[in-house]
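Re: [ENG-882] Designed sequences occasionally contain unexpected residues at chain ends

Forwarding the minimal case from QA. Structure tokens:
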């Protein structure tokens, strides 16, 4: 007699694999529209006049994507480095107004909306100033740098009745929409665990961005850059590689975890975790930074599942990110622009472990067992079904996110990611930093968005 557990681990595995059914489905996804000029095609009064505040790597990349949406024109740019201001004119025309002081942009009547891609410690002030000036706002993630930023941004949003969308593009992705549909349909049964990762394996990935050769107090507005941060002498490294310091950025939690939270909350419909525990340290990039380069965290959700996150700046492999949703009847994985579901239906019988009994007892037990469970799949387990859903080649969720934002600007309909959603995602992410700082478990009230 062989225990069914052993049987499943040998011949059953082979038969189950042979019975696996695999399908591939293409999702409908809109690709960015080609525009050689770098400015979206315009149509008279329907044109949205956009200004960029913070023209660094993310800001310029965002602007390139935003201008592919028809009916959008860049009219102004603010940044604290003269070289970036000059480059925006090289890319988008000499008629683009440039300034070091974003308040000059907010005073202009020809600006309808602003794209804010400043360092994190400027997010709250720039967003609130823009809304009070009557501008709609696309605010890069993380929405907050400090927990106190969240309520102020939300209150200003409500009192000014402006449009504000947070820039975590997965909320607009057709891939994540499909994942949400699959989870809601019960494709993997009851959700028990979400595991998410974001591994980077390069110096640039670790925020060691290039510093221009002319970096100085003449070309860089250091005092304006510092803002509310502690005052210190000019540092080109801090100015151009600001994510490495907590004074200006939010570490890997604010830069990367917040994307994973946005995706998780969108797919599951959750408002956030209630408890977090994290550990992290500077393991490799011992270059003067104070933001941890390795961070691992666990979060408890009131819906009955756990979220496990990790970021590793040097893992010896390819740079990648992804999700794995573990349910009672299967797995759902998101990798790039694909979502794959592997369904393993629950067994219809409990199985048995009788090999330690006498031969007579084994025969008697199995005979009684078969009376109760007369039907068994030949492989010893139900067959797996694998189905993959992939976005169209060249699909960009960033483009869709901007398209959704500009549609809200025109129609005044709600955005796909408002500041309440943005605060819940960023607030949850920053729990990891808080847990590492305190050295213990921290608590969060996702409904009221308050530390417990």
């Amino acid at each position: 007699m062989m225990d069914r557990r052993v049987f499943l681990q040998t011949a059953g595995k082979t038969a189950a694999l042979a019975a696996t059914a695999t399908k591939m489905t293409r999702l409908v996804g809109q690709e960015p529209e080609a525009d050689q000029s770098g400015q979206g095609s315009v149509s008279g009064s329907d044109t949205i006049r956009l200004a960029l505040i913070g023209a660094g790597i993310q800001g310029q990349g965002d602007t390139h994507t935003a201008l592919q949406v028809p009916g959008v024109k860049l009219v102004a740019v603010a940044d604290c480095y003269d070289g970036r201001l000059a480059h925006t004119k090289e890319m988008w025309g000499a008629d683009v107004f440039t300034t070091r002081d974003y308040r000059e942009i907010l005073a202009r009547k020809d600006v309808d909306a602003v794209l804010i891609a400043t360092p994190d410690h400027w997010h709250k002030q720039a967003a609130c100033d823009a809304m009070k000036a009557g501008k709609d706002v696309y605010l890069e993630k993380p929405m907050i740098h400090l927990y106190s930023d969240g309520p102020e941004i939300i209150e200003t949003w409500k009192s000014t009745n402006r449009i504000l969308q947070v820039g975590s593009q997965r909320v607009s992705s057709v891939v994540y929409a499909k994942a949400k549909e699959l989870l809601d349909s019960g494709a993997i049964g009851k959700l028990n665990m979400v595991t998410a990762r974001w591994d980077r394996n390069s110096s640039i990935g670790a925020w060691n961005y290039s510093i221009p050769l002319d970096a100085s107090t003449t070309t860089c507005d250091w005092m304006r850059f510092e803002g509310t941060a502690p005052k210190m002498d000019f540092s080109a490294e801090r100015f151009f590689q600001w994510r490495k310091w907590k004074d200006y950025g939010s570490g890997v939690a604010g830069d990367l975890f917040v994307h994973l939270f946005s995706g998780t909350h969108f797919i599951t419909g959750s408002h956030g975790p209630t408890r977090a525990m994290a550990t992290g340290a500077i393991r490799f990039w011992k270059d003067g930074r104070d933001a941890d380069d390795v961070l691992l965290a666990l979060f408890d959700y009131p819906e009955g599942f756990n979220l496990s996150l990790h970021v590793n700046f040097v893992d010896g492999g390819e740079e990648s990110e992804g999700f794995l949703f573990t349910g009672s009847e299967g797995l759902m994985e998101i990798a790039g622009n694909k979502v794959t579901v592997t369904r393993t239906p629950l067994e219809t019988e409990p199985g048995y472990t009788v090999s330690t009994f006498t031969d007579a007892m084994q025969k008697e037990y199995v005979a009684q067992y078969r009376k109760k469970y007369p039907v068994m799949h030949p492989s010893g387990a139900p067959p797996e079904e694998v189905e993959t859903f992939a976005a169209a080649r060249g699909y960009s969720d960033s483009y869709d996110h901007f398209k959704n934002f500009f549609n809200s600007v025109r129609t005044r309909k709600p955005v796909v990611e408002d500041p309440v959603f943005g605060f819940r995602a960023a607030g949850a992410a920053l729990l990891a930093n808080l847990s590492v700082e305190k050295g213990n478990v921290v608590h969060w009230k996702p409904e009221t968005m308050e530390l417990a």
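QA comment: On inspection the terminal residues look reasonable. Residues 135 and 147 are 24 Å apart (CA to CA). Proposing we downgrade this to a documentation issue.
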